[in-house]
Amino acid sequence: MKLLKFYDKKKVSQIDHDIVVTENRFVFDKPVTLILRENLMSFSGDDFTIKDTEGVSYFKCEGKALNIRDKKTIYDLNGTPILNIRNAILFLKGRMKVYAGKDDKKTLASIIPKTSIHSRKYVISFYNISEEKEETLDMKCDFFSHSCGIFYGKEKEGSPMVCKIIKKIDARSLLTNKDNYYVEVAPGIDAALMAAIAICFDELKNDDSREKKY
Q1: Its domain of life (predicted)?
Q2: Can you tell me the mean pLDDT for 46-57?
Q3: pTM of the predicted model as reported, rounded to 2 decimal places
């Protein structure tokens, strides 16, 4: 039994139905790997450009570090807001909500920790448009928060991993202190939602360090 588990080498798998939470146009029939880079010129340090490994643009994301007032919004390439991400409630640490568009009228997904202190396991609940029912995903992070796997079911029961998020460390990230993430999404899985979850992963990882700073 391994004491430390990492998800960067594990393969993503397609499941027997699509997961559509935002729109069908963000669900692809082939695997896609999105790259989330913090813009070097961003004063907030938390604006992302989202492209694939071939340099093709998919989404734009703008927003400040999340607190009770601020949010992050993901747009399509035409500038139309797809979803926004917010901390759920100030006193419920580690809980995050994904809403449709730019407001908080319609909840798309909730990210809830399985334990109350320094959790590395989360449950993502959402309404799947393609199946017309509520479903959940399990999100498991490694000890150092350098990678996480998103599973359709429980990992210990051999459930498929539909997405993995990997923090890439290179010379530029070391010099600039800007985090880069590779988000590998299986076919049939809502890529906009997975990009939002990757941003949540970054926010959750940085939560403790922000508290210490302020």
Answers
A1: Eukaryota
A2: 86
A3: 0.86
Nearest to residue 164, comparing CAs of 180, 147, 179, 152? 147
Kindly list the domain boundaries of the chain, sorted by start residue: 24-213
Q: Beta partners for 135?
A: 126
Interior angle at CA 54, CA 53 and CA 59, nearest 5: 70
Terminal Cα-to-Cα distance of the chain (whole angstroms): 39
CA distance 137 to 151: 6
Q: Is 188 left (phi over 0), alpha (psi -120 to 50) or beta?
A: left
CA separation for the pair 33, 74 (Å, rounded): 17
C-alpha distances in Å from residue 175, one per residue of 146, 169, 171: 18, 10, 6
pLDDT at 41 over 90: no
What's the per-residue H, E or C state across 158-181? Answer: CCCEEEEEEEECCHHHHHHCCCEE
Amino acid, res. 56: V
Q: What CATH number has the domain spanning 24-213?
A: 2.40.160.200
Kindly state the tokens that stand for 190.
Answer: 């809502």
40: alpha, beta or left? (left if phi > 0; alpha if psi -120 to 50): alpha
Q: Rounded CA gap, 50 and 176, in Å?
A: 18
Kindly tell me the burial class for residue 126, based on how many C-beta atoms sit within 10 Å of its own C-beta (0-12, 13-18, 19 or more): buried
